[in-house]
Amino acid sequence: MEKLIFTLFLSFLLGTASYSQSKTKIACIGDSITEGPGRENPASFPLQLDEILGSTYEVKNFGVSGRTLLKKGDFPFWEEPQFEEAKAFAADIVLIKLGTNDTKPQNWKFKDDFKKDYLDLIQEMKSSMSKNGKIYIVNPVPVFQDNFNISARVMDEELRPLLIEIAEEAGIEIMDFYAPLLPYADLFPDGIHPNPEGLTLMAEALASKISQ
């Protein structure tokens, strides 16, 4: 009887400890490629990432279609409720995947502000995280075809090199969606947005990096 009581008590303690362990929270900030078919849609790459990483992680999708990193862009992420929601989430890891819509002519005319605005966003996110929290810049997926006024030339020749400068200045790492997706132009029906298979490749690429 005493052995049974001890076993039950031990099980209770182990269960309580397991339950009390906090999950590693990941916030995904981005545009339509992050939002995917919907922020709560399991096909979006953030929710696929959540599924791959398992029960010790909690991944939230804060993507908003058409949004820019630039504060003076036509639709700045800064002005969306998801900006404040991402900060309130107090993530352990923040993935920033913005920039694709910034290559549009009406936005890139403010390109001189891009580095400062990006560094400002990094600081805003850091302010809501623990001192051990990590922020990653995500190098966006390839632009296989100019569409929706998005420019492949601006992306590859101007914006991507800026991301490297920003990462070095901020002392943070870059996670890459460019190289892993470059062989898969057929998964981008409009040249810009990945189909569900492409979103899965994105989630797998991130999961591989994070699990290391």
From TrEMBL:
Coiled coil: none annotated. GO terms for molecular function: phosphatidylcholine lysophospholipase activity. It holds the Pfam family Lipase_GDSL_2. This is Sialate O-acetylesterase. The lineage of its organism: Bacteria, Pseudomonadati, Bacteroidota, Cytophagia, Cytophagales. It comes from Arthrospiribacter ruber. InterPro entries: Ester_Hydrolysis_Enzymes (IPR051532), SGNH_hydro (IPR013830). Residues 28-198 form the SGNH hydrolase-type esterase domain.
